[in-house]
Amino acid sequence: MLSFSNFGSNQKQRTERLEEAVIIARELDPNLIIDGPMQGDTALNPDIQKDYGFMALDSPANILICPNLASANIAYKLLSESSPKIDKSNKIQDKYFSRVMYLAPSNLADGKLTVCPYAKIAMCEEPCLNTAGRGGFIPSIQKARIRKTLLFLHEYPTFMFQLIEDINKFIKECAKLNKLPCLRLNGTSDIQWENYLYHGKNIFEMFPQIQFYDYTKIPTRKVEGISNYHLTWSYSKANEKYSKLFDTIPYNKAVVFRNLLPSLFKNVKVIDGDED
User: Fold this and answer.
1) 10 Å Cβ neighbour count for 237?
2) I want to staple 214 with a disulfide (CB 3.0 to 4.6 A). Which of 15, 34, 186, 252 is the partner?
């Protein structure tokens, strides 16, 4: 039985109805192995199940019961467990361990609301990396990204509750690996997380122990005062007016070069991001 928390772990948002459903099911069939309410990864991951010694399950569940749309969405983890790019980074990094959240870019999720406000101005919709790698040939990945984005756009409190749960699990994972947690929340989106609050705090304030980082097309973001957020502006010359903003950006800038790297670009020293 799936829900947004494991066995009522959130006391402020209890799941009495689902807890009662599990009790009734066990009364109707004492031989039935049923557990919950729990999150989707808990139902499917025996390693997580070991943290709950009272569980009847000790192996992946073969049936997942989603009582409504919100809990159906929750079956999709917000933080990606694996991607070729992040896997490569985690292998060569001794200090940090990374995770990335991938959403459906621009207005792909519902056709109206966007999570990339400068996508059309910077003309980055067509070259977007949303369909790169596994996202380009595994349909379920695109469907999951759309579901997660719809949850963010239309059920923000539920989205944030799940994101915080996922981040807390990620912190525990990093502790076991003896590495520092590093998160990129805008893998395929450009959300101004500094402006989104949950119970009066933004995500950077909630997790000061995490090093967050992102790329952005938005030239007006004010993040200089956020010590645990490293932001890089992604340059685009597709729009002449937009490209002239280069000199106004106070933080790091990323530029794609097709051929050899120059030593200087617009009087700024060029560093090879693949080597440094």
Assistant:
1) 13
2) 186
Q: How far apart are CA 249 and CA 235, in angstroms?
A: 10
pTM: 0.71
* Average confidence (pLDDT) per 10 residues, the chain, 276 residues: 73 70 90 85 78 85 72 60 67 86 92 94 82 67 88 90 91 94 95 96 97 95 95 90 89 87 91 78
Give Cα 133 to chain centroid, integer Å.
17
Q: How far is CA 217 from CA 125, 188, 189, 192, 234, in A?
A: 11, 12, 10, 11, 5
| Site of tokens 């993040």 | 223
The amino acid at residue 189 is: S
Beta bridge partners of 38: 2
**For residues 153 and 79, what is the distance between their CA atoms, to the nearest angstrom?**
17
User: Please, are residues 37 and 31 in contact by the beta-carbon 8 Å criterion?
Assistant: no
Residue 168 corresponds to which tokens in the numbers above?
């807390």
